[in-house]
Amino acid sequence: MDNSVRQARERLGASQQALATRVGVSRQALGAIEAGRQVPSTLLALRLARALGTTVEALFDAVPPAGFPVLVAPSLPGGGRSAGHGVQRAVVATVRGTLVAHWVQGVATTPADGTLELGDPIGHSSGFTALFHPFRDDAPGTDRALVAGCAPTLDLLARRAGGRFGDAKASWITATSGRSLDLLADGLVHVAGFHRPDPGSGESSASIVAARFPGQRMLLAHLTRWRQGFVVPEGNPLGIRSASDLGRAGLRFAQREEGAEAHRLTRRLLEEEGSADLRLSGPVADGHEDVARLVRYGAADVGVAIESVALAQNLMFIPIVEERFDLVVPHDLADFGPVRRLLETLDSAAYRAELRCFPGYDVGSSGHVTTVDGA
Question: Rounded CA gap, 97 and 282, in Å?
Fold first, then answer.
């Protein structure tokens, strides 16, 4: 608490003892208030303001915190800095003792924990440091789990976990499968979600995790199964049936960035068609839902996404492959309160019952957890 009691008293030419007597406290108590060692009660603050001929607001002001140093995940293009803005909203959490911040990239109504002050960033192998100013006075990030992934249902899972338990919160960090695993490996999230074709394709989720996290014990929690395929307007006016149709002149394809499983699937399909060098043209989509939006509003003719987002937008879906989506959790983080609560929510009947209301998801094995030892 900052105050201007001494300056106001001196302007009136009053001594400490005279003002103390007038407001009914000792001179020592008034001296402690002027020095900032003591915060007055509401009644005493009103008496001081009246005696000094001013207002409480003019005498006292809360000193904004100097800020908490945080490691900022480079989740935005260009290393994570947003051009033209020195302050950005962020969500924070403590990951293995490090306070980590992720940009809030959604609309203005998406909640955040505070703001990032972006001066000259200090470089780091997986991000940069900045000062974080919380919206609340309590210690930030101690009761939150960060889960990264591209499944839209992760938002539902995070919100359900936060609403079900008063001692833990969770936040969904939107990221591709590849990016999610990178964030987990760099210590920037607690949980990473990724999807891959079923084991029949020759590459199981467990083998991917074992190779990605050598020498580490990890937990693999199953979220859902879904189908991924072509998303086209209702009636499929261009007659899209296979990857060979993507090479048509003028066709606009909703592209995904490298690291996205949809990008990986598209390139594999083109290779199988003998068109590995084909350059697709069209807008870049930020996730499955964005692919569906681009197709629905005519900005793209076709894209690759999961069945549920196509059905939600009243679009036609042409299945290509069935996949499973899993959550990866380091074994040493599984007992961290918010992570444990997140996994309990995943295994709850209420979460599965709600997820069954959404088309395109198979939740028969949701919540099943296996242990994977890194190679």
Answer: 43
